[in-house]
Amino acid sequence: MKKRITSILYVFCAASTLLFAGCGRTNTHGLSAKNPTSIKIWHYYNGALAAAFDELVSEFNNTVGREQGIVVNAESMSTVADLENALWDSANEKIGAPDMPNIFQCYQDTAFALDKEISLVNFDEYITAEERDSYVELFVEAGCIGENHEWKLYPTAKSTEVLILNKTDWDKFALAAGVTTQALSTWEGIVETAQTYYE
Question: What is the value of pTM for the model shown?
Answer without folding.
Answer: 0.65
